[in-house]
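Tokens for chain A. Residues wanted.
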């Protein structure tokens, strides 16, 4: 499979219009059909992440793709982490968010594919790092955010629903122990054919978030 060209004209539409449509039509999908995603489509989505910009071209990302029984096993670890957090919380001020984390886990279980995203240059958030390391971490996190956004938009172009997930933090140790790789677990992305068509969520007005200083 060759998916190096992320501008494949899959829908017979002008590529620029397709990209613009994807930006404005993308939604966070929480209900998925059981239908699986072909390897060809999955590779196109991941290849879009590969070509994202990154600070100093460090490309600090690794994408671990889970499906089927392998997905069930890693999500068991996430469930164990959420249960542990209820009794022995690492995030003491965020206990109120655990029901949402449990709901996110249910969504991940229903999605055919879950992609866990690592910062290959990062360290556990439980570790202390110096100012230089923190600045590098911030830059790498921005880069990884760009890669994930590329994934979401490419998925939208290809008719695949997605959900950008941060609730992996509540099972950080359990998940990273299971993954068994160095680096920092940033989050995950659920992928699958959507079984809902949610309305757009409210967004701030442009004039409320932009200041022009042009002279």
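Reply:
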């Amino acid at each position: 499979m060759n998916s190096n060209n992320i501008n494949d004209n899959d829908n017979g539409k002008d590529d620029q219009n397709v990209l613009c449509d994807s930006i404005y039509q993308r939604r966070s999908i929480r209900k998925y059909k059981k239908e699986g995603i072909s390897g060809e489509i999955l590779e196109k989505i991941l290849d879009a992440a590969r070509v994202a910009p990154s600070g100093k071209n460090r490309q600090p990302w690794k994408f671990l793709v889970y499906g089927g029984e392998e997905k069930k096993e890693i999500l068991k670890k996430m469930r164990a982490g959420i249960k542990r957090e209820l009794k022995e919380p690492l995030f003491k001020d965020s206990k109120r968010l655990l029901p949402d984390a449990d709901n996110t886990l249910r969504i991940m279980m229903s999605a055919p594919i879950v992609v866990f995203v690592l910062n290959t240059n990062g360290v556990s958030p439980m570790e202390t790092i110096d100012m230089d390391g923190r600045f590098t971490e911030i830059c790498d996190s921005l880069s990884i955010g760009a890669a994930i956004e590329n994934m979401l938009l490419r998925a939208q172009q290809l008719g695949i629903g997605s959900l950008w997930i941060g609730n992996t933090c509540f099972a950080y140790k359990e998940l990273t122990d299971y993954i068994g790789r160095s680096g920092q677990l940033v989050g995950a992305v659920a992928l699958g054919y959507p079984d809902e068509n949610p309305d757009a969520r409210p967004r701030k007005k442009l004039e409320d978030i932009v200041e022009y200083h042009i002279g």
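The helical segments are 15-25, 39-50, 68-87, 98-110, 131-157, 172-179, 206-209. The first helix runs from residue 15 to 25.
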